[in-house]
Amino acid sequence: MGVTKGPLEELIEKAGGCAVIDGGFATQLEALGADINDPLWSALCLISNPHLIKKVHMQYLEAGADVLITSSYQATIPGFLSKGLSIEEAEKLLQKSVKLAIEARDNFWTHLQKNPKDGYNRALVAASIGSYGAYLADGSEYSGGYGPDIELDKLKDFHRRRLQVLASAEPDLLAFEAIPNKLEAQAIVELLNEEKVNIPSWICFSSVDGKHTPSGHSFKECLEILNCCERVPAIGVNCTSPHFIDKLIHELRKFTKKAIVVYPNSGEIWDGRAKKWMPSECFGDGNFEALALKWHESGANLIGGCCRTTPNTIQAITKALKSKR
Ligand SMILES: C[S+](C)CC[C@H](N)C(=O)O
Ligand SMILES: N[C@@H](CCS)C(=O)O
Ligand SMILES: [Zn+2]
């Protein structure tokens, strides 16, 4: 069986054409009291507070998420090494990120079997893989400028071992998140092929102008690279202002037949130096109900939220999309 008819397509079909992804993971960790002002950002909790990670996953499941994204966005082997951990410990933490989400999903599903409630699917677990820019911890996922020293092979080297370790933990999906440039998308595709990864992936870009990746590449150019890869059944944008999403869905649809994934942030802007969200035109949960319906009509197949969205946002999206099922 090819990866193009895998669990993601089955979920989308079961969900009536558009499944719900969870919301801001780090955001909800902070709402529950975690201090993640650290180069590891949310991945710090894999060391310091795994129980909180599971709690966030449970809250998103209760809100109706059909897909859980793991806590590994900014979890990297070099990042853990710089905290004094060994390679073995670092790799165990990566696996733990998947394990925590699978446990949450399984507990929630077992409970639902005993206490049935309408509208829930058995959720899929997507292992988060942030960009090289996320590892830099300087907001580069919104600039895409890694400098002339970072070439294709360096990006492949950066991603290779983490990808192998996360895949070995057997998540249902791999979620490449907030990729800010074409070079990194190409590195990921080459790596998925070289490593013969048979777990289906989505690759999502960030955008700060609603028209290009942060590095200035067009989505047409980026999709030319991704369209050839059957290991990537879905593509999209995340951690981008809701303002831009509808136009971006139309733009992406012009250049691909793959499933389209959108999970915007709240519209606030990340100040990479201050490590703070700056108030901007922020969208509330009420906006997301109407927007989700619009994005579904425009052709999105997976809709959720990214930074500064919460379980309430996902509940609003669930309400909108599940009323149509
Ligand atoms: C998606 S951004 C808000 C994640 C945090 C960023 N990589 C940093 O560490 O500054
Ligand atoms: N999955 C990550 C993405 C950050 S852009 C999170 O929600 O925290
Ligand atoms: Zn985000």
Automatic annotation (TrEMBL):
InterPro entries attached to this UniProt entry? BHMT-like, HCY_dom, HCY_dom_sf, Hcy_S-methyltransferase
Catalyzed chemical reaction(s): S-methyl-L-methionine + L-homocysteine = 2 L-methionine + H(+)
Write the record's keywords in alphabetical order, separated by commas. Answer: Amino-acid biosynthesis, Metal-binding, Methionine biosynthesis, Methyltransferase, Transferase, Zinc
Task: List the molecular function annotations (GO) for this entry.
Answer: S-adenosylmethionine-homocysteine S-methyltransferase activity; zinc ion binding
The Hcy-binding domain covers 7-321
* Bound cofactor: record note: Binds 1 zinc ion per subunit.
One Pfam family named in its UniProt record: S-methyl_trans
Obligatory cofactor(s): Zn(2+)
Please name the GO terms of the biological process aspect recorded for this protein, alphabetically. methionine biosynthetic process; methylation; S-methylmethionine cycle
- EC number assigned by the record: 2.1.1.10
Residues binding Zn(2+) are 239, 306-307
Q: Tell me, in a sentence or two, what this protein's role is.
A: Catalyzes methyl transfer from S-methylmethionine (SMM) to adenosyl-L-homocysteine (AdoMet). SMM degradation (by HMT-1, HMT-2, HMT-3 and HMT-4) and biosynthesis (by MMT1) constitute the SMM cycle in plants, which is probably required to achieve short term control of AdoMet level.
Subunit structure as annotated in this protein's UniProt entry: Monomer.
**This protein is called what?**
homocysteine S-methyltransferase
Species the sequence originates in: Rhynchospora pubera
